[in-house]
Amino acid sequence: MELRHLRYFVEVAAAGGFTRAARTLHVSQSAISEQVRDLEDELGVPLLDRAQHRSRLTPHGVLFLEEARRTLAAADRAVEVARRSVRGEIGTLLVGFFVGGTGDFFARLIRDFRNLYPEVRVSLVELTPSEQQSALLSGTIDLGFTRAVEPAAAARLKVERLFAEPLFAVMPATHRLAQGTVQLAELASESFIVAQRHTSPVLFDKVISLCAEAGFSPRIVATASVSTGVLTLVHAGEGIAILPRNAQYFAPSELAFRPIAHPEAAIDFVVAWPRDRESAIARAFLSLMRQQRGPGLLA
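The chain above was modelled as a monomer; its predicted structure follows.
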């Protein structure tokens, strides 16, 4: 049994005969009659009473008509769902993020995407940059808002740079350097709190390289897995830190964020996704993100 058989039968029932159905479907009357006869033969049940000039449904045909209409409606819905899926209008999108790097733009982007595609289920997963990279490679998430990926993963991931986020020296507001711009060499005698390399390798390596360029190796006295942990330790008086600008949104008012006088004192913020799993939904999301890109949104 094919959907064509059901459509012909439903149209004959609606039109009250083969002649009108043929005109509506733009198919010869004999072809429709043959298809409906094949359907009856396959079912082993008479659906139409052809004894009179006007074809009428048998009692069996009345019951079958109701089910045939439901089947055709379900098939049409399935086709529409498939087409909407191809257009990225329905389905699921898993997005990785880490609070210290998203800023205000991320929340607006998510809200706007949900408004545009209300039938896409967007799931947000908070992960460190290192965890995001692993999740992207394993297929746990579809997109990751993260730091630059490590070279070993670059061949399997597409990466789009969103912006360079300035790095700031973070210290208690009472610190001797808490006013004005900070020269890196001025931090040589300080105790450092840093994000652990296994969770934030790009940030860790950047801090080390900046200090090395300034002629010293930072004296690391404590580490934390995320930037909020680093802020807590700085607030407790354990030392100073170098963190991206967005970390100030989560910092206590007693801490000062001072700009660093170095042209390379910045760290990239990117969106990444697997090269072999770029879904239609992911493309729709990325398209909206690119439309919204601009200094006012991503700076």
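Confidence is low (pLDDT under 50) at residues 295-299.
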